[in-house]
Amino acid sequence: MKINLEFWRQTDPADKGHFETHTLENVEQEASFLEMLDQLNEELFAEGKEPLAFDSDCREGICGQCGIVINGDPHGPEVTTTCQLHMRHFKDGDTITVEPWRSTGFPVLRDLVIDRTAFDRIVQAGGYISVNTGAAPDAHAIPVRKANAEKAFEAAACIGCGACVAACPNGSAMLFTSAKVVHLGLLPQGKPESKERVVNMLMQHDEEGFGGCTNAGACASACPKEVPLEFISMLNWEVLKAF
Ligand code: SF4
Ligand code: FES
């Protein structure tokens, strides 16, 4: 396939940034989106140009590192991560625009690479348990209602990619934060710290410059792990209980 690429170039956080273009003549339909960007970089390198900087690690939809905005959609046209998106979802001759996540909480470091450490600081503020749960047999001996175990598992599917923030008109990270709060709050081991957790994580969320939630729902639509909007309601319930 022939693909016309428009990609974001930015040398550092202070740079205004701009779009550049390049045409790839022989992209395989079976190639993943990141393999197509690898091909772009081989061609840029051969022409003596700077390769395009982008993040990736597992390339298996697990680590959450690869997020970019593709034709205006976080992770592109499918409900999946950028690394699991394949070129068969595009047509010969298509023009594809690639940009970094755009949010105050995620400064652009270079080209498509953003600083995602705001998420680490939200987790550090309360996304953990500090009670002693003993060894594995002790943890297994604590009964957990099946419905709670399944909901906690659903919340644990969040990979911290940040697509929810990129999709949100307010740049809110409430879906990410709610997934962490719900995950731990539903389990017996997470209950002793549940009040401090939700308050501290929300305070850190706001301090990082993420916006408030107005129930737009764009976050859940963009989430590659289908974390449901319902978790934000569950987070709000945790806030009410905390006060
Ligand atoms: S809630 Fe979904 S979109 Fe947001 S960080 Fe987690 S996996 Fe990514
Ligand atoms: S590279 Fe790990 S989720 Fe895409």
The dominant shape is elongated
Q: What is the averaged pLDDT score? A: 96
**Structural class by secondary-structure content:** alpha+beta
- Cofactors and ligands present? iron/sulfur cluster, FE2/S2 (inorganic) cluster
* Main beta sheet: 5 strands, mixed
Distance between the termini: 58 Å
Unreliable spans: none
How many β-strand stretches? 7
Q: Report the radius of gyration as a whole number of Å.
A: 20 Å
Spatial strand order of the main sheet: 2-1-5-3-4
Number of helices: 9
Work out the helicity level. 25-40%
| SS strand fraction | 5-15%
What series of H and E elements makes up the topology? EEHEEEEEHHHHHHHH
Structure summary:
This protein is α+β, with helices and mostly antiparallel strands and 243 residues long.
Descriptive account of the structure:
With 243 residues, this protein is of the alpha+beta class. Helices cover 36% and strands 12% of the residues. It is built from nine helices and seven strands; from the N terminus they run E-E-H-E-E-E-E-E-H-H-H-H-H-H-H-H. The chain has helices at residues 33-46, 117-124, 136-140, 146-156, 163-167, 174-185, 194-207, 218-222, 230-242; strands at residues 3-9, 18-24, 69-70, 73-74, 95-99, 108-110, 113-114. Strands 2-1-5-3-4 form a five-stranded mixed beta sheet. It has a two-stranded antiparallel sheet with strand order 6-7. Helix 4 (146-156) packs antiparallel against helix 6 and helix 6 packs across helix 9 (230-242). The longest helix has 14 residues, at 33-46. Residues 56-59, 61-66, 81-83 line the site of FE2/S2 (inorganic) cluster.
